[in-house]
Design a protein that fits this description.
The protein is built from 24 helices and 18 strands. It is of the alpha/beta class. It folds into three domains: 7-222, 3-Layer(aba) Sandwich (L-fuculose-1-phosphate Aldolase), CATH 3.40.225; 241-400, L-fuculose-1-phosphate Aldolase (3-Layer(aba) Sandwich); 411-590 and 622-649, Rossmann fold, CATH 3.40.50. A seven-stranded mixed sheet has the order 3-2-1-4-7-6-5, sandwiched between helices. It binds zinc ion (ZN). Zinc ion is lined by residues 116, 130, 132, 165, 193-194, 290.
Amino acid sequence: MLNRWNDQDAAHYTTDLALRVYTSRLLGQDRSLVLHGGGNTSVKVTETNLVGEEEEILYVKGSGWDLETIEEAGFAPVRMAHLLKLARLDRLTDPQMVNELKTSMTLASAPSPSVETILHAVLPYKYVDHTHADAVVTITNSHNGLARIREIYVEDMVIIPYVMPGFDLARLCAEHFASEATEKTVGMILMNHGIFSFGETAKESYDLMIKLVARAEDYLKANKAWVLPSQKATTTIKPLRGEISRLRREISAVAGFPMLLSCDMTPTCLSFAQREDIATLSQQGPATPDHVIRTKRLPLLGRDIAGYATAYQNYFEENSAQATDEKTMLDPAPRIVLDPELGLCSLGRHARECTIINDIYRHTQEIIQRATLLGGYQTLPAHDIFAVEYWDLEQAKLRKGGNPPQFSGEVALVTGAASGIGKASVDALLERGAAVVGLDIDAGIEQLYQRPDFLGLVCDVADEEQITQALESTVRHFGGVDMLILNAGIFPESCRIDALATETWRKVLGINLDANLILMRECYPLLKLAPAGGRVVIIGSKNVPAPGPGAAAYSASKAALNQLARIAAMEWGSDGIRINSLHPEAVFDTALWTDDILRSRATHYNLTVEAYKRKNLMHVEICSRDVANLAAEMCGPLFAKTTAAQVPVDGGNDRVI
Ligand code: ZN
C-alpha cells in the first residue's frame, strides 16, 4: 500500500475541512481503495452560527461527488446535535432519514449528505475515513472470512457483521462501539462491505487506513493468495464485429433501450473468462453491495441472453415477495458479459458507464481470484444483494439524472471527422448523447477529444482493408454501428473536361464514390442490427441538382453517390435502415477554403468576401454547424419515417428551386 501523504502538498491545506479534502483525494487516487463514487469521509468541526452560537458540524461527503476529485463544496455540513439524537431513536425509515439529514444541514445549496452520515456522527473521532478496500473485501468474501478478519484485526478494530447501509447499520455500529471499543481501537471492519479508520488529525486517520489495509494485503501475501495465477489467454483472430453487434442487439432488446457494449480483450480479462471454473467463480455475486447498482448481481456467462433474463426475473420474484414494500422490476438485461472470445464486456447507456463497469469488474476479477486462492470466494446471500439493488435510496440516485439524451446507448460513425462538417457532426452527435467514432486520414483525429464517448481512428477510406479494420475496432469499442455519416470527400481544383486527367477523375471517384460504396456495404450488416434501426446520412452537394462548369469529377461523383443512396433506400427499407441526403452549398468554415481562395472567388464575382459568403436567396452564411445539426436530426425522431429525402442547406438557390 502506497502512502501518498506529502508534507509539502499538505501544507497548502490549512483548515480542518481543507485537510479533509486533501486526504479524501489521496484515498480516491488509489483504485484498490475507492472506485467511482465509493467510500466516504467526514470531519467534525465547531462553527459559530449567525446568531453567535457555537455548533458542532459534521462535514460528510455529499452524494454525486467522487473522493478523487472532491472539493470543499462536495461536503455536506450537518448539525451534530441532531444527528446524535437521531442515532438514539429505535426506528427511522429511509425517507425519514433522508429528510432529517437534508433539513439538518447549515447550507441549503450543499449536496445531499451520504446515507452513512449517522454512522459517521456516532463515531467519536474528529476524522473518519471509509473505503471498500479490495484487500479487505477479498478476505471478508472468502471461505471462513470472519475468522480470518478476527485473526488480522481483533486487537484494535471493532468488527461488525453485515447489515445494509442506513440507519440500522449506524445503530448497530454505535452499540458495538459502546461495548467493544477500547483505547487501542483505531478502526472498524464492516463484514462484506469495507473498512473505517479514525484519527484526531486528517493525517492520522489516512495513515491508519493505509496501514490497516496493508495488513490485509500482507495476510493475503502470507497465505499465498496475492499473486494471481498466470494463465495463457487464447485470442481470436477472426473478425468479431458481426457476433458482437448481434449480442448487443439481443441485450438491448431485453433491456428495452439501446445499450453500448464495450469489449475488453486484454489477456487478464480473456484468461479470466477462459478459466475452467468460471461458471462457479462468476456466479456468486458482487464483492461489495456497493457495486450491485452498476453491475447487477451477476454477469452473463456466455451468450444465452434469454436464459439470463429468465433467471433475473426469478431472482426478482423470489426476493421481492419477501420485501415489505411494492417493488418494480428493473430491466432484466446484464451489465457484464464474460465470454471466452470477447473477454469482459461492459454494457451501459453511456460510454462513461461502460468504463465504470469495466473498472469495477476488473477489480472484482482480482478479488475473486485471490479469495479463491484463499479457500473460496463466498459472497452475501442473494436477498442481501437484492435489498441493496432495490433500495429506494440507490434507485433514487440513479434516477436523478433525468431522461437520458436522444442518442443514449447508440453509436455513430463519421467519416472525414477531423475538421469541417465532419468535426461539426461529431460535436452534434456527442451533444445528443451518442458514442461517436471519427475516421480521418489526418492523424490528428486520434487526439480530437479525450473522452470515453469518442474514439478517433486514422483511416484512409480509399483503402478497403483500413475500412474493415476501423469497423472491427468500432464494434469492439462500442458494440455496433447505428448511424453512419458519410462526409469524407475531396474537391479537386477547377478543371474543364477537355483538360481533365484520367488520374484525377479516378481519384475523385475513388474517394467520393467507391469508398462510400464500400462503407455502406460493410456497414449494412451492422446497421441491420442497430437496436433502434440503422440510419445513414449522406453529405451530398448543391452540385447534384445544380452542377457547375469546371467541376466534372466532383459533380459526377456526388451525383452517382446520390443515386447510390436512392437505391440503398429501396434495398434497405425493409431492414429498418433509412438513408437521407443533405445538399450543402458554400460552407466556407472548412479546411477547403483558405482566406486567399475566398478572396479570389469573391473578386471573380465582383463581391466583397462577406457578400460572397451570403450569395444566396436568404443572404445567410451557411456554417459547418448548420449542416451537422441537420445531419444529426436526420438520425433522430423527426426523420423516423423518412428515407431517400434530399434536403438542401444553401440559404435558397434559384437553380435548385
Ligand atoms: Zn460503504
